[in-house]
Specification:
four-stranded parallel β-sheet; six-stranded parallel β-sheet; Rossmann fold; 3 domains; 330 residues; homodimer; alpha/beta
Chain lengths: 330, 330
């Protein structure tokens, strides 16, 4: 992408004023649809990039931002990719998505690629990396934003604030007379825990509930793991009457299994998902869940990345509020 | 990724014979799980690549293969990405996914990136490109594989063979006494048509059915377009009793709208999807569809790409057979 292209070149190609180009780029003033399209076409045609990206390009970097995720089959990450793309595209940055299948070697391979190809930046949901793995990037001066429950060293962090939403979920569950809660949790991360499980455990105490080890199942963040976890929970003595799930894919797997076993949802067992993935409202009954907006995560990550490209050096954390979404499974 | 790493280096690091490394890479003989893991770890650690990739690297190319798709929110493409990744990973090639939102400027921007960054190859489902746009790649010597219904110039092609599956769908539909078929088709592609619509039209004649223009709605390949299209079809005189959909997302949108309008599926109207996306079996009633296996497409595309990297110069087409999947909506 040519660095020498200026806003004036874009204006000339689009047949508009430089100010109009600037308005289209900044979004600070409304620009008529046809004019906007002409400017966007000229930007694309000429490969124009605004300062932020241009600065990174002058340092020899590519205009690629890698989004590294553990499972592209989970629509949360497709939404995150779309959101990130929408934010970064006007800056001339191109998002490319890398699916690691939560495999540590793959995660590291993509970090290496980012360094070797001098990517403009990395946005990553690490699964099996440790803070040390990120040194590779910081040494190469490539900004990284982590989207996760916990920080990784000195990288910027976008993280959920799900406390209020989970409290609302527990209020709904206990209000429906449920007392025996269980969880189909995710795999242990690099720190050995699952923050969603730990949050549920901490809040349960406040509701006078217990979450004994025998009512906690662990698995991957997949539909298959949800089915297996639910089958196990239905086999224990004093089986649970409310099951919290690590994410919506896990909850859908639990619903599959409930149907197979003839267990009524929510008649016999209430089910609570997490994320509000696109299919949460698709299944019947519609899944009650805790929404963690991938769009908001993408926006926050883009902002943090652009700030770094603009020269910020201190570490930042952005908390994205989750929201309880009552539907039909409690 | 270092090119100088040899199979012998990998063997030494993994504490196995060179032959064992070769078996792991080729899959020609079974290798015990632990041994396989050790070899794979050594491959990842040393950044070893087999000849195919090494050859491209020696020519100054990166190990990145770009998968360029129109809509990452469609699980078909997430599956395609996973399949492609699985095939190319043992060769030391890294798949990165680019979402164009079916936008021509974006499609061209990624082709330009591929050239500028000297990617190892491109696998693409083009939406608004023409054959001419691919010259950029062929001039740079970057192999491209198109996954689409129609060829684009001299690029290799992976394309569906859905004739038998669609015939089976029509047999099922007419067997259920339906005569008034309609289609919620996709947008016009670069050639001005929608091959799935044209196939249905051609086959309908063989079944003594007609598919008049008033019973064909066009839209994007989205749930929203499906809902809008279905609403329109329910408003026409002599409304259809069977609706074929451009893909499963469109069919799910039609189901949403049917529920809203109180139209029974399949009682009042039969519904047929396309692709067998992950959510096709998730909805109730389960969606009858035509399966086009993203896994098979990914395998075929990987094979074609590797052949090109190995030096093949003549154009090839691989046809992937679609399959009728009867469930509960006819």
């Amino acid at each position: 992408m040519a660095v020498r292209v200026t806003m004036a070149d874009v204006a000339r190609a689009a047949g508009v004023s430089t100010a109009t180009v600037s308005y289209v780029l900044s979004g600070k003033r409304a620009v008529a649809g046809g004019t906007r399209k002409a400017v966007e076409a000229a930007i694309a045609e000429l490969g124009f990039t605004v300062n932020t990206a241009a600065r990174s390009l002058r340092t020899g970097r590519s205009s690629i931002v890698a989004l590294v995720v553990p499972d592209l089959a989970n629509p949360f990450y497709a939404q995150l990719a779309a959101s990130l793309r929408e934010e970064l595209r006007p800056l001339g940055l191109h998002v490319m998505v890398c699916d690691t299948k939560a495999d540590r070697d793959e995660e590291r391979a993509y970090l290496r690629e980012a360094v070797q190809q001098r990517f403009a930046g990395v946005v990553i949901t690490p699964f099996r990396l440790t803070a040390k793995d990120f040194l590779l990037l910081s040494e190469a001066g490539i900004p990284a934003v982590v989207s996760a429950d916990l920080p990784f060293g000195e990288t910027d962090l976008v993280t959920p604030d799900a406390r209020a939403a989970m409290r609302a979920a527990l209020t709904e569950v206990t209000g429906a007379g449920r007392r025996r809660i269980a969880m189909i949790a995710g795999p242990r991360d690099a720190t050995g825990g699952d923050p969603r499980l730990e949050l549920l455990r901490a809040l349960a105490v406040q509701f006078g509930l217990s979450l004994p080890g025998r009512l906690v199942v662990r698995g991957e963040h997949t539909r298959e793991a949800g089915a297996a976890g639910f089958a196990h929970l239905m086999g224990v003595k004093h089986r649970p009457d409310a099951v919290f799930c690590a994410n919506d894919a896990v909850a859908i797997g639990a619903m599959d299994k409930a149907e197979e076993l003839g267990v009524g949802i929510p008649g016999d067992v209430a089910l609570i998902g997490h994320d509000d993935a696109s299919f949460a409202s698709l299944v019947r009954p519609r899944l009650t869940t805790v929404r963690y907006s991938a769009v908001d995560v993408g926006r926050a990550a883009a902002r943090l990345l652009v700030e770094r490209l603009d020269g910020r050096v201190t570490r930042r954390t952005v908390r994205v509020k989750a929201e309880f979404v009552p539907r039909e499974t409690v």
